[in-house]
Amino acid sequence: MTSTLYQQIQQLYDTSSGLWEQVWGEHMHHGYYGPTGREQKERRQAQIELIEELLKWGQVQQPQHILDVGCGIGGSSLYLAEKFQAAVTGITLSPVQAARAEVRAQTANLSQVQFQVADALNMPFAEGSFDLVWSLESGEHMPDKQKFIQECYRVLKPGGMFLMATWCHRPSGEGNWPLTPDELSHLAEIYRVYCLPYVISLPEYETIAVNQGFQEVRTADWSAAVAPFWNIVIDSVLEPSAFMGLLTSNWITIQAALSLGLMSRGYERGLVRFGLLSGKKG
């Protein structure tokens, strides 16, 4: 099952990353539209501000060795390398993304940044290799959330920080209503279109992180701050360059574009959540 899922994820990003970069640029993640989501911003600026706000929320100081888990075409990796003058390693399941990220690093003269195809559940790095593990919207793709958190902990240096933002569903245990059949059906469609095994709630992530041994674990729900992103993406599909690009894309990319409303409606009904988690290795 895992190998099939990984092939699906690889194919999704191999085939869609070029069009995304053409229309949206190098950052393949949500934008930040203020705490309540009401601030009007140019879309790329909103994505950059998400990175900055995450760093501020995580109280990130001056990391020198950073791992970007689920690096895409290197948007966050190159940004963090320049901001902190740090060595950055990015990993992705997509050879197309890794190759494009390498070209972008060379163009930017950032020789301290490298990219490779690797499995986040079995990372090819020694224990204690990084002082910041950064995961921006990749946790949702992980077929074993506990193993993912475990691997991030393993490759961190003592005192190093794990900072993650990921898609979640609403809390559904400990006094909250269980997910309804309609909600489960909605999530199943999101999983199918975006090649996700499943998502969990933010409290569940917190439990996993604490049980793994992370210290000073903190969480936050930024759903309101990022929710406008999906309607903006929907609008962008109608732009001539995006529309023409879709016409020449394969069915996987077209299906993802046609299904953007799944995420927008998920936020509107409070089902889809944007969760943050940070923790330090003792």
UniProtKB/TrEMBL annotation:
InterPro entries: Erg6_SMT_methyltransf, Methyltransf_11, PiNMT-like, SAM-dependent_MTases_sf. Residues 128-136 are annotated as: SAM motif II. CDD domains: AdoMet_MTases. GO terms for biological process: methylation. GO terms for molecular function: S-adenosylmethionine-dependent methyltransferase activity. Coiled coil: none annotated. Pfam families: Methyltransf_11. Residues 67-163 form the Methyltransferase type domain. Residues 66-75 are annotated as: SAM motif I. Keywords: Methyltransferase, S-adenosyl-L-methionine, Transferase. The keyword Transferase applies. Residues 155-164 are annotated as: SAM motif III. Gene3D superfamilies: Vaccinia Virus protein VP39. It comes from the Bacteria. Belongs to the class I-like SAM-binding methyltransferase superfamily. gTMT family. This is Delta(24)-sterol C-methyltransferase. It comes from Desertifilum tharense IPPAS B-1220.
